[in-house]
Structures are given as C-alpha cells and as structure tokens.
Design goal:
12% of the residues lie in helices and 41% in strands. The protein is mostly beta strands. It is an enzyme of class 2 (transferase).
C-alpha cells in the first residue's frame, strides 16, 4: 500500500525492452534507497512495481506488456523524471489517502492555468471513469494524492501549491501529456454498489 505522498523525483537511467517485457533502471535521489530489498514495492508514477535488482541508488523493475499498455510507463524514455514513493509501513503517517498502486486508467493534461502562487491543471479522463470523480473527492495522479476541484463533463481539475510543484514532476508538466490515474477505492465501492442496486449505470468493463 501507498499513501499518495510522493517522496521525491527519480530519473529513468535506462530501459531494456524485450518482447512483452521492459526492465527499467531508475535512479532515486541520494539516501532514499536505503533499506530497499529485492522484492520490495515502489510506486513509479503511481504504478506499483517490484524491485528486482539494486545498484546503489539505482533500482531495477520489470513491467509486463499489460502494465506498459494500461499505464504511461510504456511511454517513458531515458532521462525522464518520475514521481516515486516507497511502500508504506505500519505506523507511517497517512498524509494523503490509501493507494494500491494499481492504475485504473490514464488521463490527458487538457489545460494548465497559472494564477498567482499556484497552478491549476485540467485533465480529460475517459468517459466511463467520470462516474468516480466528484468535486472535493480524492484522486491519485501519477502517484500523488490530490483533492479534486471542479468537474465538467469528462474534465476535472486540481489546484497545486508551490510545494507540490517542487516535490513532484507536476512542476514541469505540459499540455498533452498523459498521466496515470488511480481512483479512490472507497468512492469506487460506493458508486459500484449503488449501480448494482440500480441507481447508476454499469461499471466500466474490467473495473
């Protein structure tokens, strides 16, 4: 499990691709890989991956074709920055909301607004997933737990403070980029339960 509090920005050092599988070498900042063991879980842009090898601050992860297809990991390039969070431990403070690291869908950055001292990001999400997105609800974007602002059709926004921009890759995000989305599990449970009772349309296929 993860908390949605991004612990820093890592860098993709290398990607080795073979049929149906990619191995990522991702370098974490100094002193953030201490105590990592083979088999540990780390969220990379919100996607839970398993450590297969370690060399200093560089961790290696394997991603299957399904993961590459359903998330933005298949679009990563060497030198690219990513958000990371190591798995939560019992007793850790839950500053965001509990996440599984299982990405539900991707969204596109539709618009970036820069009022004084903050940034507002608008995202477009596939229509079937709008049913889980509510104003003031929780959502995870590239592994960061955020509060939803406004919702308009299949678009929603989030408001980011300078600290969030500094500590995550949102500081360099651009329009047209895709991001990983994990919806709040409690929201999904409530909405799907109401749907089964006939109060809403069916859940997205494969949810």
């Amino acid at each position: 499990m993860f908390t949605g509090i991004v612990q820093g920005i890592a860098v993709v050092e290398d990607i080795a691709a073979v049929t149906g599988l990619s191995t990522f070498a991702i370098r974490l900042p100094d002193n953030t890989a201490e105590g990592v063991t083979i088999g540990a879980s780390v969220a990379i842009n919100g996607t839970c991956l398993t450590v297969t090898r370690q060399s200093g601050n560089t961790l290696y992860f394997d991603a299957m074709q399904e993961t590459l297809t359903l998330t933005t990991l298949g679009e990563l390039k060497p030198g690219q920055a990513v958000n990371f969070e190591r798995a939560a431990r019992i007793g850790d403070e839950i500053g965001g909301h509990l996440l599984s690291g299982h990405v539900h869908t991707t969204a596109s950055v539709a618009e970036i607004l820069r009022p004084e001292n903050n940034v507002t990001l608008w995202f477009e999400v596939p229509e079937p997933w709008v049913r889980y997105i509510f104003p003031k609800g929780f959502i995870a974007i590239n592994g960061a737990s955020l509060t939803i602002g406004e919702v308009e059709g299949n678009r929603f926004n989030v408001h980011l403070i300078p600290e969030t921009l500094r500590a995550t890759t949102f500081g360099t995000i651009e329009e047209g980029m895709k991001v990983n989305i994990e919806i709040d599990s409690q929201t999904q449970t409530i909405v799907d339960t109401l749907a089964r009772l006939g109060y809403d349309r069916p859940a997205p296929e494969g949810s």
